[in-house]
Amino acid sequence: MFFGIFMVLFYLGVAALMVINFFGLPTYLSWVFAVCFAAYGIYRGYRELTGDHSYGMRRYDNDEDDETQYTTYSERLKQMNDINNHDNEKE
Q1: Which residues span the domain enclosing 65?
Q2: How many domains does the chain have?
Q3: In this prediction, what percent of the chain has a pLDDT beyond 90?
Q4: Residues 10 and 43 grouped into a single domain
Q5: What gap in Å lies between CA 48 and CA 54, rounded to an integer?
Q6: The pTM is what?
Q7: DSSP string spanning 2-46?
Q8: Rg of the Cα trace of the chain?
């Protein structure tokens, strides 16, 4: 959560620096980047507020329950490794 908030502030901060042309880019390019960074910062902030920051680690393999279950990346890799090891044992 703290990293997500930090990144929102980072993107909005870079957008503010682009507005004041801190990096010395041509004005039109600076404004294009400012809009992009601001839009993405607002989008990430919205995702942080709504709690939709699973980063693709959703599990849908539970047929009995319609609710989405979340898992960490390391847990997902371990599950995939276990499946691969089980398949190799069958051969």
Answers
A1: 58-90
A2: 2
A3: 44
A4: yes
A5: 10
A6: 0.59
A7: HHHHHHHHHHHHHHHHHHTTTT---HHHHHHHHHHHHHHHHHHHH
A8: 20
